[in-house]
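Memo to structure team: turn this sequence into structure tokens by end of day. - J.P.
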Amino acid sequence: MDNILKYGSVEGIPLYNCSGHTSEEWSQLKGTKWPILGACQTAYGITIDILYLPILSIIFEKENFKMSCFKIMYLLGIIDFMITYVNSILTGWLAMKGAVYCTHPNIIYISGMVVCALWCSSCMTALLLVANRLLGLTRPSVAIKLFDGRKTYIALCFPILYFIYFLFTAPLVFNSKYLAWFYTPMIFDDGGATEYFNHSHTVNNFLIVTLTCIVYTPFRWVIGTNLKHKTQVFLQSTLICAANQVCAVIYVVMNVTEVPNWIIIFAHFTWEFIHGAPVFIYLALNRMIRERFLEKMNMMKGGAFRETTSMMPINKSKPIAVVIVN
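Reply from structure team:
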């Protein structure tokens, strides 16, 4: 963002200058079109975001939002929703067009800047979530001091400020040849990748992995000694946070050393999956969310049924059966 403010536009930034070729030439030189895979990614992203909307509304319901973990889950859900738009919906569209940075510089630069900040914020939010659940099970008095009532909002300021900080670091840049987002826009053939390297992003990924492992250490003991508690919320928190570990390491490794293309594509699919997985984790492991979700779906179906039947003509020559829809 600071680069855009300094030079007035993405095109004016020296390291991101695409004046050497036209957009079509850049696509032929550096990109690859993925019509089917791109369409699948876009469809996946749209499906996830559609399913996420009613789940977010359930989490935001007054009775649920009183709980500190639901406040954290709500922020994490919003972040997942936004990341899915970039790493699945937008990425699929760019893949279908065989796009690289220089074919859509403004869209890719700004999207890469935002999604990098969102990813890092999601790492901290996920860590905060599992810490909240762990303290709730092992040190309830400490959990109350840190997260009771409006105190949770203070805790949520940290991932939000974290997001703002990463907006001013080097962005991730999409390349359709590898179907993934990198530090370098791959404009120059003579390397120069070190000049694009995002040290803060790398530190975030490895720091989160280390801290998460430390927090995970007492998990087995906690689960074994607290079976009387509602472990579903705790388990879903664990699964959400554990998925972040896998992607964090792979994405850094592929940006610092040459790796096979299938590993790069696998890393990106993992990134897509971990932000879509909460939808299925909530529906599978959280009974309350699952039941409320089904209620909402039944209400929608019921509304559609009533609207359809109200538009049907009435035959006055025959008796009419009255159907009561609950």
